[in-house]
Specification:
The protein is of the alpha/beta class. The protein has helices at about 10-20, 40-50, 60-70, 80-85, 115-120, 125, 140-160, 170-175, 180-190, 225-230, 245-250, 255-265, 270-280, 290-295, 295-300; strands at about 5, 25-30, 55, 70-75, 95-100, 165-170, 205-210, 215-220, 285, 305-310, 310-315, 335, 335-340. The strands form three sheets. It has a seven-stranded parallel sheet, sandwiched between helices. The chain is globular. The two termini are about 15 Å apart. About 30% of the residues are buried.
């Protein structure tokens, strides 16, 4: 079990959460100015900090002593200079990682940014929302959590290799790495993707459709076209020349979308999920919170972990990945507690 010291905002908190859920000892030092979250403070604390010990803001000398006892340190700050102010370079932890908006080197290293401005700089805001409407921003803490996932992966690569290292993660670079082909299109072909709402546009049909009691999203690449028609129970569409191949389907997308909507308008989403499983096509229904909590598939895959909160037992998602074939510890996480430092 490694000792992990976590300092900073939501990115550091998510990285620490992954370590805590995997059974490591995590001590969190709270930032002097907490960043407001998307949910209540209690919900945020339970979700991000269960299984951790928490310290109020500490003098730099105390932080350095804790870092010296840690196997892993994760420090999130607003700029490269802020990293230096912590005395990060002098810390002796075997694996140290920083998370900043633009990394610790380069001309933007001390630029300040919010997750929303980073999403805009990364091109995401330009793509989100309906055509002709105002651009949207991703909800929640996508930018911070994805930066934490990259950090967690890099830390574990060094841990498993038995190497000491100093890891530098820039949030903007993380977003660019996650942009699929958007950045490549612009960089290599000079093309800027346009906004199409829920429609993926270049693979048809890939969109969100309303059914009797909710919504279903389908992603039908050409190899799934025939099974998709079986799912729709509309085999005659295979003979329609407007839909002969993906190029034709792109040209006649409105007519195809109308045919799909008509075929599923009176079908319950549970039935559509069963049909999708039978046809072996990529599709997913939109579930309510209650439906997600009661989902047999998630329960069967060990998706949930329990948190003890007073007299209640709450559910929280397990980490989204495993480092080996073993299951994560089958244990109940304790609610976040005050810390005096690392044990032992």
């Amino acid at each position: 079990m490694d000792r992990v010291l976590e300092i900073g905002g939501f990115a550091a908190a998510w990285c620490g959460r992954l370590f805590a859920q995997a059974g490591h000892e995590v001590v969190r030092i709270e930032p002097e100015t907490p960043t407001p979250g998307w949910v209540s403070q209690t919900a945020s604390d339970l979700y991000l900090h269960a299984g951790k010990k928490r310290l109020s803001p500490q003098p730099r000398a105390v932080v350095a002593k804790l870092a010296a006892r840690a196997d892993v340190v994760v420090l999130e700050t607003a700029s490269a200079d802020a990293v230096a102010e912590w005395g990060f370079e002098q810390w002796t932890s075997p694996v140290k990682a920083t998370i900043t908006p633009f990394g610790r080197t380069g001309p933007k290293r001390n630029w300040h940014a919010t997750p929303s401005t980073l999403l805009a700089m990364g091109g995401y805001t330009n793509l989100m929302g309906d055509e002709g409407r105002e651009p949207l921003s991703l909800p929640g803490h996508y930018t911070e959590f994805q930066a934490a996932n990259f950090t967690y992966t890099a830390i574990n690569a060094n841990r498993l290799a038995g190497k000491r290292n100093d890891i530098d993660v820039g949030m903007l670079e993380v977003l660019l790495a996650l942009s699929q082909f958007t950045t490549v299109m612009w960089h290599c072909a000079g093309k800027i993707r346009s906004r199409h709402g829920s429609d993926f546009w270049s693979v048809v049909p890939t969109n969100l459709f309303r059914c009797l009691d909710g919504w279903i999203y389908v992603n039908i690449v050409p190899t799934f076209w025939d099974p998709f028609l079986a799912f729709l129970q509309r085999p005659e569409l295979a003979l329609d020349p407007r839909f002969a191949n993906n190029g034709d389907r792109m040209e006649h997308r409105d007519a195809l979308h109308a045919a799909i909507s008509e075929a599923i308008a009176d079908v319950p989403k549970v039935t559509l999920r069963e049909r999708a499983n039978e046809a072996r096509i990529p599709a997913g229904i939109v579930q309510t919170f209650d439906e997600v909590l009661a989902d047999d598939h998630l329960a069967g895959r060990g998706f949930w972990q329990s948190i003890a909160f007073g007299e209640q037992t709450l559910k929280t998602p397990n980490p989204p990945f495993r480092m080996d074939r073993a299951r994560w510890p089958d244990r109940e996480l304790a609610a976040p507690a005050p810390a005096g430092g690392f044990d032992g």
